[in-house]
Amino acid sequence: MNRISKWAATALAAVTLSTVLTGCFPLLLGGAVVGGTAVYTDRRTSGIQLEDEAIELKASNRLRTTLGERARVSVVSYNRLVLLTGEVSGEADRAVVARVVAEVDNVRAIVNEVTVVSAQPTNTQATDAIVTGKVKASLVDSKDIFAQSVKVVTERGTVYLMGRVTEREAQRATDIARSIGGVDKVVRVFEVITEAELANLQPPPRR
């Protein structure tokens, strides 16, 4: 399966997430597996997509081994930027989550949105899945944004938006997500690229 082979440099700006562990680049805080004629829908290289899948698998397995039933943590990697959501029972375990994931190969940054709760971790996956579905459907229906360039993650009513997008796309996706019933908060975890960089990611004209 072929995908985009060109890597565009990203311009990122920090806005609103609680805990970010990064190397030497700022983040704006606050995909799809494709084939046939849609080979250019993912703005990551094929190699990066494989790395993201490996990061999610390795991190999830290590967290399960380290924390067991003491934590319910979801790991989502996009362009090697890892978003952590879910629940743990104490600050010590929250720190362990970040440390374990940081040790996974190829992770370049972590956004730790794991929540500390006094009770046992709860399961809100069904409700969150409905919200995620509504947001994704609204992105598709909007027609003025490329929906497959935005990854949607929902945790306890908070919607996280990830992807490599322009500022215009980021704002439009945020506005759409905020309009959906059941969404309590929208947090942007985007990598912002310029319109020129986006143009370079488009498929060459057919001959």
List keywords for this structure.
207 residues; globular; alpha/beta; three-stranded mixed sheet; five-stranded mixed sheet; 22% strand
General description of the model:
The protein has 207 residues and is an alpha/beta fold. The protein has one domain (20-200). The chain contains five helices and eight strands. The strands form two sheets. Strands 1, 2, 3, 4 and 5 form a five-stranded mixed beta sheet that branches. Strands 6-7-8 form a three-stranded mixed beta sheet. Strand 6 and strand 7 form a beta hairpin. The chain is globular, with a radius of gyration of 17 Å.
Put the structure in a nutshell.
The chain has helices at residues 46-67, 91-102, 125-142, 167-178, 195-200, and strands spanning 20-22, 71-78, 81-88, 109-112, 115-116, 151-155, 158-165, 185-192. With 207 residues, it is an alpha/beta fold. It has one domain.
User: Unreliable stretches, pLDDT < 50, 5 or more residues?
Assistant: 1-26, 30-40
Number of domains: 1
Proportion of β residues?
Answer: 15-25%
Oligomer: single chain
Quickly give the structural class.
alpha/beta
Order of helices and strands: EHEEHEEHEEHEH
Radius of gyration: 17 Å
Shape: globular
Question: Mean of residue pLDDT?
Answer: 82
Give a short account of the largest sheet.
Answer: 5 strands, mixed
Q: Give the number of helices.
A: 5
**Level of helix content?**
25-40%
Strand runs, count: 8
The end-to-end distance, rounded to whole angstroms, is 21 Å
Topology:
Elements: E1 20-22, H1 46-67, E2 71-78, E3 81-88, H2 91-102, E4 109-112, E5 115-116, H3 125-142, E6 151-155, E7 158-165, H4 167-178, E8 185-192, H5 195-200
Parallel strand pairs: 3-4, 3-5, 7-8
Antiparallel strand pairs: 1-4, 2-3, 6-7
Helix pairs in contact: 1-2
